Amino acid sequence: MTGSAPGQTLTVADRRDKRRAFITPEGIDLELRIASAGARLAALVVDLLILYLSMLVFFLLMVWFFTDGGKDMAEIFWLLGSFVMRNFYFIGFEMSQRAATPGKRLLQMRVVARDGGRLTADAVVARNLIRELELFLPITMLGFATAEDMVTGWIALAGFGWTAGLSFFLLFNRDRMRMADLIAGTWVVEAPRAKLSLDLTVTGQDGGLAFTPAELGVYGVFELQELERVLRAADETVMRSVADTIRQKIGRPVAEEDGVFLHAYYRQLKLQMERGLLFGKRRANKFAVE
Amino acid sequence: MTDAALSPTALAEAAAAIDGPAFSTRRFRAEREGDWIEFERLLTAIEKGSARALSSDDLLQLPVLYRATLSSLSIARATSLDRAMLEYLEGLAKRGYFVIYGVRTTRMRRLGSFFAHDWPAAIRSLWKETIIIALVITLGMATSWALVAGDPQWFFQFVPEDMAGGRDPNATAAFLRDTLFAKPKDAALHTFATFLFTHNSQVSILSFALGFAFGLPTMMLEYYQGLTLGAMVAVFAGKGLGVEFGGWLFIHGTTELFAAALSGAAGLRIGTAVVFPGAHDRLTAAAAAGRTAGTAMVGVIIMLVFAGLLEGFGRQLVTDTGVRYAIGGAMLTLWCGYFYVPWRRRA
Asked: Considering Cα of B249, then B250, then B251, then B252, what sign does the dihedral take?
């Protein structure tokens, strides 16, 4: 009810770009981006590290608490505690307001219901119980192969291959869905938490520089935003080479400091292009013709 | 347009102080920045889980600020080329969307509706799959029972040695009787119950998770469970301990096997949804089945807590076969009444 079917208004290039249309009831397209497989893996590694480290700490605590006598109690707490941690770590965090485990938060991602509706508890449970199959079963299979004589190495290897095949399911579809995402009706999208940064047109000084419209007309939106990135990063050597390139392009001598020159150029370029936008003119990059 | 961080007059003055054309992105940002910052403050508070800490004024502001942010995003996309600001607004709008349209009930409410409605409804809708899995388990039991009763050597094919623990066809009737009624030292009881619970839950979760491969692995796992059980029954029945073994099994088995069957059924539901999606496309069908099955699985884990308690404590403390049957029967009636009797429930 609250979203649109994915991929209706976006082009093929956008779909490959991992952008998916996501129209709010107010009619704004939020353009969700599917999180990359690499980021997913990194988040998983972080989560597993946290999970196993806290299990280890918990284990040591139990050993320490029940050094004398209460061996049974320690065992019960350990069994229950590790069961709850293993099965409810992911479920608990993903059911919270931010719909993300600490690993996903770190990598700035969240779980979203594919139909645009709200993420329900049953979907979170389904997507995480199937993790058992994708993650822990292959590990168990490997364990069997090394520890047990019950099955031959080949059977264990086949089992591992089969289960690992399931685990890599996400690499074989465009939406980077795990087997479990498919079944739970979810997907994982980027949830960037950008800080509101300074307005560069306010902070910079022009230093008496004025550029002609022709000098400002050599670049497009892409170059403007790259220049913005350079100015925000404020790396001296990069600024030097960028300033030199621009000076060369518009034929100006090296007369002022790079920072002052770039800020002034950025400011006036942005002003001219934004005025163009108001008249419906948008030049994508320097190769585009107006 | 509202704001809470800065007063409207101060903002208007700040905006008016900017020289230049009537509309400029600088002026646009100066006018609206206060709203964004205020909205971000509220979002951060809510995401940290302290929605209660918000005043009622803040809560009334929330949707207004959300719409203001979306409006800013629309205008910014059309007029601004400041990438950092665009990214900030997009991130803020996304966060806002998921907070505003995310959770509509409190946790307690959700928990209440789970027990009052969602759980039994999910189990009820799995009735076909539950019957199939029950038949598969029964078939497994019948198979191994018939085989072991005919030739005891079959037993060793079905039950791993460490699991049998000496309870095989070569054991004496006295030894077998002892395993049914002996009281272990009670210190070990709760450990035993906990172990049973965690082990059985893990098996059930696996049997559910295996379901999506068209349900076949789930059925194999359940059939295997039936095989083990049938072989044990055959051993005890062969020594004239059939009724007693029934009681030993019944006290927790009605809950545990029921839960096992339900976890299999939940897995099977996903498998069948993938093979026979019906009126929907496969993805939608799988997603719908996954949600039902997910709810059912939470229920299964709760059932397994009961099963673990009954097995760990009940069975060891109650050694009278009649009482064992009575407790097992009562649990079965309780579950069936809860799941299948159409009580009037508030949705």
From this structure: positive
